[in-house]
Amino acid sequence: MTTEHTATGKPYVHYHAAHCESGVTSAFFRDKGVDISEPMVFGIGSGIFFGYLPFLKAAGMRVSTFRSQPGAIFRKVARRLDGDFVVKTYRNPQKGMDELRRVLKTGQIVGLKTNLYWLPYFSERFRFNFSGHNLIVLRETKEGFRISDPTLEHPVDCPAADLERARFARGPMESHGYMYYLKSVNPHPDLRQACIKGMIDSCNLMLRIPLPIFGIRGIRFQARKIIDSPDKLGFNEACRLLADVIRWLEDTGTGGAGFRYMYAAFLQEAAELLRSAELAGLSEEMTAIGHDWRKFSLAATRIIKQRKQFEQTFAEAGGLMHGCADREEKFFKNLRKVAGKMKV
Amino acid sequence: MVSDIRARIEEAREAVLAGKKSPLYYHMARRQMTPAILARAAGIASFRVKRHLRPEIFSRLKTSVLDRYANALAVTREELKTLPNS
After folding, report:
1. How many angstroms away from the CA of A176 is the closest CA of chain B?
2. What is the C-alpha to C-alpha distance for residues A192 and A163, in angstroms, rounded to an integer?
3. Contact map slice: B 1-60 vs A, CB within 8 A
4. In chain A, which residues have their Cβ closer than 8 Å to the Cβ of B4?
5. Which of A27, A34, A287, B64 has CA atoms 20 to 30 A from the CA of B30?
6. Interface pTM (ipTM) of the complex?
7. With 0-12 CB in 10 A as exposed, 13-18 as middle and 19+ as buried, what is A83?
8. B39: Cβ–Cβ under 8 A, 6 or more apart, which residues?
9. B3: closest chain A residue by CA
10. CB contact under 8 A, B40 and A170
11. How is domain A2-35+83-185 classified at the architecture level of CATH?
């Protein structure tokens, strides 16, 4: 927690957050005087998701995402909490940077979607080619920009040229200088209604997308792939497939069980807010599902590390994933019922 | 994953030293790019980028093309033609 200020001298408090986009959105609302926590943002913005996108590769890894697409959380939260917001992309980098400078001068803080590789303040270890990292720009300085990155402990400086590269990096999931900010916000938003909307939306995303690669079907699809992989692809390639999933599940975002724990935290808060014992029960169920995902990644890492008796264990790992899918299906169906009843 | 990337860069360096690939190949790997990504970043068709990975073709490139690569990879034109030490 560090206090900073924007271009007009308005104080800004930097908080450390577990996940970049929910952290950024939460910081926006806090800046406007509405104090909502990070899990709450994650839940209202329907952050929880699953998608298996083998045709998309980020840093050489097939993407299987455990959250909704970058940018969605902010848009959904801002809309559901009755905020006035701006989202923009640019073709021309120069125009994008000019616009950023102009908005910053008005004392506004601005969120950006950037490519991790070109952000110089991360150590070499963390920098890989992934265009989906969110951060907040506070103000322009002599050397560049003052940046509050919610995944870091303190605000940092970033040269303008590097920031421009990070914003307009080419590759999979190009951000095209994606820039967003909150103009104004309702000081007393209807949190309850927003929570219910967020939950129902999440249920629909997980259960009702009629494509095999998203939601519960996506989990099953990938589980089947994993079970078949040693026969179809050979052991080494199968291990790579598994390693890709584990990286998305454990390394990116919050790190750990693909955001399932954060969603459990949201349900906990929502249960208190809506005074619902059912939601509290579902929150515990979500934590248990998180543990299941953990078990899956543990089993998978074992396969990758020790190279014996693999045929059996690939099936086991896939089975664990199927187990997660079954549990999540039941969970979201229950949540749909509970949330549907609460809808006023 | 970090070791993966390192290994890929090291492989690229060896391929360049062995004369199988052009230095462009090394710089591309160092920026964690593929020919397709580099093509978009430099604004050069990907079949040309792949061709430019061959040393004999790379050595004959015009400065204007080299500059586009140098800009996309955030290195100078001189650096682009050589391998850095270490």
Report:
1. 12
2. 38
3. 1-2, 4-5, 31-34, 37, 40-41
4. 60
5. B64
6. 0.84
7. buried
8. B45, B46, B48, B49
9. A125
10. yes
11. Alpha-Beta Complex (3.90)
pLDDT in tens, A243-285: 888 888 877 766 567 688 889 999 999 999 988 888 999 999 9
Domain with CATH 1.20.120 in chain A: 191-342
Contact B32 A128 (CB under 8 A): yes
For residue B35, give the chain A residue with the closest CA.
A171
What 3-state DSSP class applies to A57?
Answer: strand
Burial of residue A214 (CB within 10 Å: 0-12, 13-18, 19+) is buried
The tokens for B78 are 């001189």
Q: Which of A71, A182, A50, A75 is nearest to A134 (CA)?
A: A71
- Could you read off the pLDDT of B1-55 as tens digits, one per residue? 567 788 888 889 999 999 999 999 999 988 888 898 999 999 999 999 999 999 9
Q: Among B1, B4, B74, whose Cβ lies nearest the Cβ of A165?
A: B74
Residues of chain A with CATH 3.90.70: 2-35+83-185
